[in-house]
Amino acid sequence: QVDTDVLIVGGGPAGTMLAWQLAEKHNAKVTVVDKAVDEPWPNNYGVWIAEWQALEDQLNFGLDQCLDYRWKYTDAFLGGEGSGGVDANYRLRINRDYARVNRKKLK
Q1: Which of 7, 36, 70, 89 has the fewest other C-beta atoms within 10 Å?
Q2: How far apart are CA 12 and CA 36, in angstroms?
Q3: Among 15, 11, 67, 9, which Cα is nearest to 40's?
Q4: What pLDDT is recorded for position 28?
């Protein structure tokens, strides 16, 4: 038997962060249940650097150590089949720093 205030199912990035926030900021007794807790997260994660830095400024976790690669801009390709007639070669350049998160380091 476990004495808990909140049960979170899923120990991925969102569940882990929610558990930490509830325990740290609200003194909740939190239990995280995840059938694959020892397995690596399967997805790749990308972040806008400004948002990642704002999160780090609040949490002080050393999140910059979790970034694999940084880009000065992002190209989004939005055309092709199912796009309502947008040319398949249409590219939208977004001039914001972007990065790939190393999921092993993040975990």
Answers
A1: 89
A2: 10
A3: 11
A4: 92
Through-space distance between the first and last CA atoms of the chain, rounded to whole angstroms: 27
Write the pLDDT tens digit of every residue in 10-58: 888 788 888 988 998 899 999 999 888 787 766 678 899 999 999 899 8
Structure token pair of residue 52: 């990642």
Look up residue 14 and give its amino acid: A
Cβ contact 31:18 at 8 Å: no
Q: Note the Cα 93 to chain centre separation in Å.
A: 22
User: How far is residue 11 CA from its own chain's centroid?
Assistant: 12
d(CA 72, CA 75): 10
CA–CA gap between residue 88 and residue 81 (Å, rounded): 7
State the average pLDDT for the chain.
87
Contact 47, 23 (CB under 8 A): no
- What pLDDT does residue 50 have? 95
